[in-house]
Amino acid sequence: MNKINKVVLAFSGGLDTSVILKWLQDVYQCEVVTFTADIGQGEEIEPARAKAQGFGIKEIYIEDLREEFVREYVFPMFRANTIYEGEYLLGTSIARPLIAKRQIEIAQETGADAVSHGATGKGNDQVRFELGYYALKPNIHVIAPWREWDLTSREKLLEYAKKHGIPIEMKQQTGSPYSMDANLLHISYEGRLLEDPAKEPEESMWRWTVAPEKAPDEPEYLDIEFERGDIVALNQERLSPAVVLAKLNQLGGKHGIGRLDLVENRYVGMKSRGCYETPGGTIMLRAHRAIESITLDREVAHLKDELMPRYAALIYSGYWWSPERKMLQTMIDESQLNVNGWVRVKLYKGNVVVVGRDSKTDSLFDPAVATFEDDRGAYNQADAAGFIKLNALRMRIAAQLRKSFKK
Amino acid sequence: MNKINKVVLAFSGGLDTSVILKWLQDVYQCEVVTFTADIGQGEEIEPARAKAQGFGIKEIYIEDLREEFVREYVFPMFRANTIYEGEYLLGTSIARPLIAKRQIEIAQETGADAVSHGATGKGNDQVRFELGYYALKPNIHVIAPWREWDLTSREKLLEYAKKHGIPIEMKQQTGSPYSMDANLLHISYEGRLLEDPAKEPEESMWRWTVAPEKAPDEPEYLDIEFERGDIVALNQERLSPAVVLAKLNQLGGKHGIGRLDLVENRYVGMKSRGCYETPGGTIMLRAHRAIESITLDREVAHLKDELMPRYAALIYSGYWWSPERKMLQTMIDESQLNVNGWVRVKLYKGNVVVVGRDSKTDSLFDPAVATFEDDRGAYNQADAAGFIKLNALRMRIAAQLRKSFKK
Amino acid sequence: MNKINKVVLAFSGGLDTSVILKWLQDVYQCEVVTFTADIGQGEEIEPARAKAQGFGIKEIYIEDLREEFVREYVFPMFRANTIYEGEYLLGTSIARPLIAKRQIEIAQETGADAVSHGATGKGNDQVRFELGYYALKPNIHVIAPWREWDLTSREKLLEYAKKHGIPIEMKQQTGSPYSMDANLLHISYEGRLLEDPAKEPEESMWRWTVAPEKAPDEPEYLDIEFERGDIVALNQERLSPAVVLAKLNQLGGKHGIGRLDLVENRYVGMKSRGCYETPGGTIMLRAHRAIESITLDREVAHLKDELMPRYAALIYSGYWWSPERKMLQTMIDESQLNVNGWVRVKLYKGNVVVVGRDSKTDSLFDPAVATFEDDRGAYNQADAAGFIKLNALRMRIAAQLRKSFKK
Amino acid sequence: MNKINKVVLAFSGGLDTSVILKWLQDVYQCEVVTFTADIGQGEEIEPARAKAQGFGIKEIYIEDLREEFVREYVFPMFRANTIYEGEYLLGTSIARPLIAKRQIEIAQETGADAVSHGATGKGNDQVRFELGYYALKPNIHVIAPWREWDLTSREKLLEYAKKHGIPIEMKQQTGSPYSMDANLLHISYEGRLLEDPAKEPEESMWRWTVAPEKAPDEPEYLDIEFERGDIVALNQERLSPAVVLAKLNQLGGKHGIGRLDLVENRYVGMKSRGCYETPGGTIMLRAHRAIESITLDREVAHLKDELMPRYAALIYSGYWWSPERKMLQTMIDESQLNVNGWVRVKLYKGNVVVVGRDSKTDSLFDPAVATFEDDRGAYNQADAAGFIKLNALRMRIAAQLRKSFKK
């Protein structure tokens, strides 16, 4: 084991990372810097300060990263209409690169030679954290306690906590029925009761959204304004990125929007069942496609669609900081320069229905050409004959040949 | 103008194709063979016989193609989770190749040297019909009346009808407020009142689905069984393809599922607003993704996702009978050999919620590996360290270099 | 026929475009502006002035566009290692967008309402010219004489020339045995003697390169320096883009490099046989791949390779000015920021052999990691076990399942 | 360390695998089955029998796999025109899956519970072997001595050999100046003298090809016949796959064809310099593209080209036995049904020049359409106007909009 002097720990203040903190102090005999961030997980972060102090920590970083999270990570990802495996909006995946980046910056500032996180050895998050660490600081030492220690069960963890005087809350005695993760984009549930993908999750699991059955009987209309592919205003009120997303979460949650129950393919090789609530993201995706539908060139849109699954897999698998993701991002961002305008959606019991879209400056919908009525020469129907003839030519030549040889 | 002896007309029996029939007889002075097919459009086809006879037609083809349509066209397309531009389920696009194929077969049988259709010169359907014709019979003569004649407005069309004694129903006097197309997969609405994409369509337009607001307050559960990627049973009852789709349409329609309002990019170059009802297809797509989620290899699934937009564009643009579509189909079909099992969905006011999926024979979901509990060695967490290290290596080398050069 | 006031003609000064010039004056009764450009075709352009004056032309544009051509078109294309259908370096395709752009600019300057070119109705060039025109000036009127007039054979063309006093050179009496096109990137041959792809072209056809058999018996070494993916120096001498390419053509031609004989797929639908000499381009491509091999990240390189065929097809088919080509270019250019360094090639009787490559600032080749000797810990071989294990996991789970079911 | 009973070793009979054999016996105390295959590496395999017997081995497999290698691995790969990173013909990569498969089959036959190979922990071959093992037999135990033992230098290896009485040849004392690998497709060189990619390799390194400078001064013509994309005859003589490749190697080697010197990206993350001789493969690739040029549909060819880099990366990275490689292969094979005909190439001092190609049954080259002369109506040039107009439409609408807004 290398000698470590100082390690920056992603510290939530909860039981698991408290045990890790203590374990790092004990096993590595090194100084620990704690880093606690508000990325919209919905829990107070300030209490983490006292907890860290309780372990004798001197360098404590507590930061509100919500705006940066949405502006620099969530919004760029949504510019690509990103969905993993046709369903998943990548709520967990997109938060990890930011945490990793801040840990590395703090390591630079504090002269730490290592970083540590609380992700297990079976999941994607360890990959997302560590690929970020290595890409940003190639010689950083990474400590992944769950892959190293012998606290392989909850019982052993609790025992360790008790032994070292780490306070255990009542609910932690039994353990949550799910493994959860939350940030401004989503909350996720995995494991335990969800491990049989044939069984429907319990209604009581969901936390951010009401069931569609419990949602209001009245639909609600919402106007969403985009600039360069990002939402800048809701119902004509300009809002900052994080406020946009918080507001959409509130509206989506109220109307039962954004629940998802799926089996996904982890980067480490197994299938896993996850449930997600992404109320605001679900509205954003729908609205973004709608504004693109009138402002984006056809071939640009199709090229984006073809590259999207790969872009999604890169984010899912932890390659946010890779050169190929950045290269794709350059192209995606370029495509958004004209994505300006507004979309109207109707929210009702789980449904996000697009009911209108327009752009004063960038609509490529040309009513003069598109009309089913007389277009007064905007489009010459005779052109279609040549268009079809030449597009068919290669197939005609082939069919002629096959006929000759009676294939 | 080439001398035409006999033409096979895709004949619905409605006003437009009746005018075309008469116009072909007059202008081309040729024999007309009528072909009328039931592909689930929801109208009786038998009355077309009397109408054709009224024009003195001797060779009249009237056929029920519903099973062939779903088995050979709809199901293969759904194996790829096909969606055009992120939204559209290609209901119109997928029916055209079948019509084109039958017209060509009938031309062979009847010794006709031409085929004709009622699609306009501005839309995608002319392309879909004609690419099919040419691919299947390279020297066929194609007559597209809307691109040739001078009946460029509804008024002129009605006048022509009156002049030639073609009966005009009351509603045809004014014209439908929408241009519609229907088959077992969907019904579509375009034009007229929809030509401003900023405006919500009128509730009265929708014909196949109730509004989610009017759908039952009780959700309904449905078990869907797949074999090789196709649905073979609903609620444990084995059904033929067309019956499956009809049943899903009925259930989806009842629960307000499958409405869509979008602006799409036509192959002929302009943007166009369309509204669609695809109740059964919407359920199928969701369920198919769910069964694939447990039976398909990750990389196979991702490759399918990356190729899907192109496959969708091929179908949308009329290339069903092209060699590249067939080549992709071979690959897609190969991928479905293991897609066997069942999915349970919950239908409720516009929502299709997947609540369970399993496969006795082909589930790649391995609970022993996936579990959040002790997996007794099924997965060695230590492997992840090496996995991450080598995946990070190229990025670390690059970061090291950039550090040296202070980039 | 619309009334045209003034048309900008791409005018080479040769027989064909002279006939077109006269025909435009006669048939359209309009003013003609001639535009003659030196893009490295190897013929004097100044004589075109007198010829145009002979037709009474008042607005005559004669321009040397060689530097712009290489800097803004050839180099950007080579950044992507662009090859069409595995073989063709797109020499003709890449020159058309520049001509089209200048014609449109001149139309703006001179107030012309039309443009005209000398490409036939069967080839790709008409598409390349006209897509450029329309993309840059949507309402421009395009006159394509070969698609309009009745001069459908060489005899008729010569007759028209004689009748209108257009001087015909001796060789033009019989017509060239090939249709040729040249610019600084290549010279092409099509048609006539080449129309049987089973037959080898005559040695006398080739103009820019000696046969490898006639090339020097001594190889020649050449050092090529790149900055941001473009060549900036040869043998340590900094040169402008056009001078680089001219020098490479001279060297390649001397050593018998860059001949190509292929059957290609035209955008208008038929296969066509073409022969090309691209001596400098052949060297550039090889050297560019070599400098990328040490400076480009693996996944960036692979992504470029996957998108290249589409990028090539866009250029081949005339979509240089399309938004999708520009979007891809943004990504390609971004990838070249680190493509700095030098490559040494050996030229010998048709061969371009890369014999060395290095980059002081951007080499990702890390000898400490790559070495077959003891690497003193730069790479931990044990990491490979975990890497393989997790990459294999999904296949192991599948194999386990298949074993259980004896598939 | 798990208890191993019996291990199947890929045994060349050379020093390295002899040491491994002994080491397995000593360290694992298990029975060893040796497997030695002739895949065209150009060394006798029968002597391996005596060597194995010298170690007391009872189960000795010695097999000639040359035909299977070319028929089932090399040919299928060439159907895709497969090249890794624009240059490398994958000679080493394509042989590993066959070795892996036979080892697993032998493990089944002999009841072995483990397999072992002699690849190091830094290269791609370990991955290729082991992904194959795991995909074919998920619970096989893999022993990779180079990742496990402490014989980390040549000195230690020789010492171990001496200590255990393993005979060491003179040349092995000093070690080869290169790490080499050979099979019927290629011979490769890596390491040692090649570790500086700025330096040209010594002429003495190359073993299979003469230098172009030393090749005959007379070119040689060769007729190559294809059926379904595979070569079946040379100069009108039908030959088996392995004989085809051997003959092409002999011809290519004689004419100095197929040398390659490149820096490639290994799957394990670093760049590596390799030199390769692939004389027969270089001819095959060129000829295969030529036969496809007249028999393959344009869009099929383009789709193959777009997917090729990924297919190549799969093979390079060891995923031959993966479901995604098989899925792509299905599509590739399907595309080859019409790839029948012949190609004539001219071999001369490093050059493979295609000089003719034809197909009696499947040529899509239609001289009537392609001709530059009067085509008597086979192609209607007027069609091109409509073709261009509709392809330009979306760009015209966009340009019109930009003009309105003076963008």
UniProtKB/TrEMBL annotation, chains A, B, C, D:
Residues at which L-aspartate binds: 120, 124-125
Pfam families, sorted: Arginosuc_syn_C, Arginosuc_synth
Source organism per UniProt: Nitrosomonas communis
GO biological process, one term: urea cycle
Primary enzyme class: ligase
Record has ATP-binding as a keyword: yes
GO molecular function: argininosuccinate synthase activity; ATP binding
Domain Arginosuccinate synthase C-terminal: 178-397
Binding site for L-citrulline: 88, 93, 124, 128, 179, 188, 264, 276
Family, per entry: Belongs to the argininosuccinate synthase family. Type 1 subfamily.
PANTHER family per the UniProt record, alphabetical: ARGININOSUCCINATE SYNTHASE
Top-level taxonomy: Bacteria, Pseudomonadati, Pseudomonadota, Betaproteobacteria, Nitrosomonadales
Pathway involvement of the protein, from the record: Amino-acid biosynthesis; L-arginine biosynthesis; L-arginine from L-ornithine and carbamoyl phosphate: step 2/3
Binding-site residues for ATP, renumbered to this chain: 10-18, 37, 118
Arginosuccinate synthase-like N-terminal domain residues: 6-167
Protein name per the record: Argininosuccinate synthase
GO CC terms in record: cytoplasm
Gene name for this UniProt entry: argG
Subcellular location per the Swiss-Prot or TrEMBL entry: Cytoplasm
